[in-house]
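Course assignment 3, question 2. Fill in each field.
Student: A.L.
Task: Predict the tertiary structure for the chain below.
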Amino acid sequence: MEHQYGLITGDKEPVPLKSISVTLSINDFVAGVSATLNYENEEEVPVEAIFVFPMDEDSAIYSFEALVDGKKIVAELQEKMQAQSKYEDAMSQGHQAYFLEEDDYSRDVFSCNIGNLPPGAKVGVTLRYVQELTLETDGALRYVLPAILNPRYQLSEQSTNSCFNIKTPIVPLEDLPYTLSMVATITSQHGIESVQSNCSLSPIQYLADDKTSAQVSLAEGHKFDRDVELLIYYSEVHSPSVAVEMGMQDMKPDSLMGAPSAMVSFYPDLPEVKGSRACGEFVFLMDRSGSMKFHLSYQNDSQLRIEAAKETLLLLLKSLPMGCYFNIYGFGSSYEKFFPESVKYTQKTMEEAVKRVKDLEADLGGTEILTPLLNIYNIFSQLFVFTDGEVDDTFSVIKEVKLNSKKHRCFSFGIGEGASTSLIKGIARESGFITGNDRMQTKALGSLKFALNCSVDDFSLSWDMPPGLSASMLSPEQTAICKGQRLIIYAQLNGTMPQEESSGEVCLKYTLQGRSLENRVTFSLQPKTNASFIIHRLAAKSLIQMKDLGSHKTSDGEKEDVLNISIQSGVLSSFTAFIAVNKDLNQPVQGPLAPRVIPRPMTFSNFYGSFGHIEDIVLMRMMENSKSSTKKTNLQKYRKGFGKKVLCLISLQKANGSWELDKDLTKILGTGLKDTKAANPAKDQDPSAWATVLAVLWLHAKGKDVKCEWELLESKAVAWLHDHADSSIPMLVQAAKSFLKLSVIPDVFVV
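Answer field:
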C-alpha cells in the first residue's frame, strides 16, 4: 500500500500531473538535481493542493520555486511556524501561495502546499537539491530517484497529522497520466566506464574523448512506477581527495557559508586481520510486519520482502563462528524471539534456527520496533536490523540507538523500494556503521565480516596548512570504519587564504590491533567557485543531521542551532520551511477549492503471494548483485547452471565449517561417492577434511561470481581444516585439484 508522489489536494485527492522532468548533474560522487513537476488545472474552479514526495534523507534541499503562467515565484526559507502563518494569511486574502516543509516524523518525506491555483493555470514546481552518492561494494556510485512512498505505521496520536495519511486511487499502469524524463550528465577525472540502470536508458554518449564526461537519459515514455536507479562505474573510485569551495561573498568571512569549506574523501586501506573465534553475541532483529508481504520492487519478477530477509538471515546464520552466542527477534505490533536468551552457536542450535527461519511469516501486524530494541539493549550485543522502515516515529528509534551507541554495534538494512532512508541511514549514522537499503545480502555479509574482525580505534584528523590558516570540523566524530568504506569529512577553513598557489595536507590516523596506520592527501588551497555552493550545503546538511530529531525529540538548544544553520545555509530542516506568495494577480482568487485526483499505478505489492523456494530467492539475489544489465533475463540459465549448486553446497556446510563426505556433496561436485572416497589421499584421517577441501576448491572454481556470499563460510572451513588436518592440507589440495580437474590457487588455505 505504497503511494506514488504527486500533487494532492487538501481533501487528499490528487491534481492532474502531466509530466516529471529531472536534470541530473553528477560530478564524481556528488549529485546536483533539479526536478520539475508540471501540472495544469483544467477545471473551472480554483484548487489548493499538497505535493508529497519521498527523497533520500541525505538530500540537501536548498531551492524551491514555481513557474505559474510564465511567472517565476522563488520561495524564501523561514522559521516553519512563521512561514505557515504567512501561507495561511495569503490564502485567506486570495493570493497564490506556496509552502514546502519536511515531515515532522521522518527526514525522507516532504510536502508542499500550493494554494489558490486558478482555473486554467499551469504550474511547474521545481526543487533543487544536492546529495552524496552511495559507494557500493562493487565500486559503483549509486543514485536513486525515489518514486515509492510507503505509508508508515501509526502508533501515536501525534503522527495522525503526518502526510503519510494521504490516500490515492489505484489504476492500471497503462492508465497512469504522467511520465518521467531524466537526463544525467556525468563528469569524473577518473574516466567513466559504464552507466547501468533498472530502467531502460539511451546508449551512453561520451562528451569527451578521454571518457571523463558522458550523458545518458531515460527511454521515452517511462512510467514513474518504480524507483529509478543509476549505477555509475568509474575507472577508479578509491583515490583520496580534497575539494575546497569558496564561500559566499556577501556573508561574514568567518561564518558557515562565508568561509571556504573543504570536502575530504578517504578510503582507508585496512589490512585483513583475524579476530577472535569467540566473537561475542549477535542479535538479528527482523521485521515481520504485514508490509513485509509486499514485493521488494513493484515488478512482477521481484521477490517478497520477507523472503529476501529470510534468505539473508539464513546466510548470516551459516556464517557465524563457533563459540559465539546469538538470538533472532521478529517484530511487528508485538515481538517474538527464538530463544529466551541468546544461545551458544552449535550444530544443534544452528539447525534449529535455520528451520525456524524458513518457517517465518510476515504475520505480526504493525511496525513497532522501539519495544524490542529496548529489550535487546538490556544486553551487550552486535545488532543487525532488517526492516522495510514503515515505522511512525523514526526519531524515537534513532535517539535510542544514539543513546546506546557506545555499548552496542548496530547495523541496519532496508528491505525493498520505499524503505525509509531516514530510519536506515539514521541508525547507521548514530551507531557509526554505514549500511544501506539496497543490495542487502552483500552489505549484511560484509557487515558481519567487519563485526568478526577487530575494531579500528583512536581516530584522529590533523591538518598541515600555511601559517594563519586552520580547519574546524563540521562532520561528526568518526567512531568506526569498515574495510572498503568511504569516509567523507567536511571542514571549515578559517583565517586568510594564501594569494599565491599553495597546498595543504590532511592526515587520517587510526589504530588497528595496536598498529598505528595513517592516510595522507595533499590538496590545493585555491578554492573553486560553485554557484550552488554544493560543499557548503552538504556540510550544512551534515550538521543538521547531527542535531535535528524532529520537533518532538530535539532539545531546545539543538533546535536553535538547527534553525540558525538552516536559515544561514538555505538548507531545509524540521524547523524551517520554504514560503512564497504571488500578490501580482489582477484580482484575488475566489470560490471554493476543488479536489482533483492523480492516480497511482497498480503494482504487485497490492497482492500477497509467494515467490517460490528459498533456492530460487537466493538465485534471484545472486543475479541482482551481478553488474550485468541482463541479470534477470539470465536467471533461468543461471538456475540450470552452477548457481543452484552453490546454494546447495552452502546448505550442506556444518556449523563448525566442515562438510561431510556423502552422496549429497558428491552429487553437487559431479562425482560418484565411491570414486571420491577412492581419490582421498588421506584415507586414515577424518574424511570430512577431504570433503571440505573439495568443497572450498569447487566454490572458488564455480562460485567465484558470488564470492561475497561465501567468503565467511570459506574462512570457517579453512580454520577447521587447520585445526583438524593442518599438515595434510597441501596434499589434499593438490589431490582435489587433480580429481576435480580444477585450477585454483591453493593459498586460500594459508592462515
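Instructor remarks: The first strand starts at residue 3 and ends at 4. The radius of gyration is 27 Å.
Grade: pending
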